[in-house]
Amino acid sequence: MPSFDTVLEADLVEVKNAVEQVAREIGTRFDFKGSSAAIELKDKEKEITLFGDADFQLTQVNDVLLGKLVKRGVDVRFLDAGKVEKIGGDKVKQVVKVKNGVSTEDGKKIQQVLKGSKLKVQGAIQGDAVRVTGGKRDDLQAAMALIKSELKDLPLSFNNFRD
Description:
37% of the residues lie in helices and 30% in strands. It has helices at 12-28, 55-71, 104-116, 137-150; strands at residues 3-7, 38-42, 47-52, 79-86, 92-98, 121-126, 129-134, 157-162.
């Protein structure tokens, strides 16, 4: 049977390059001189930590990060920003997670969208992907369009198309 996988994968190499560019820019920009503004990439490129002297400086670092990610072709919907935390004195930090893999809740949403449609396709959660199978290639292509239109908040992609 024809099938494809619905996945949520960021290009981690581009994310790493963007973080390195931001770190370089923080070191050279005049408004960051003498401050504790910094950026780190941890946990195998799945967690970005932003540091700053105040909330305003943290938003500046975040804006630079988002600009670099967009220039490198990484969708900013992959980022999941956490709370701003105080780390002593007036210094603050924020942890931004890079989404990778379809979560169980999102997989269930995809399955509900497919069940609610009149298409003859089935969705099955397999680890961090959702495998969609159907009788015809046209049904699968319609399912791809439906998933893209219904779940706009997720930067989903489709791979492993089998005929």
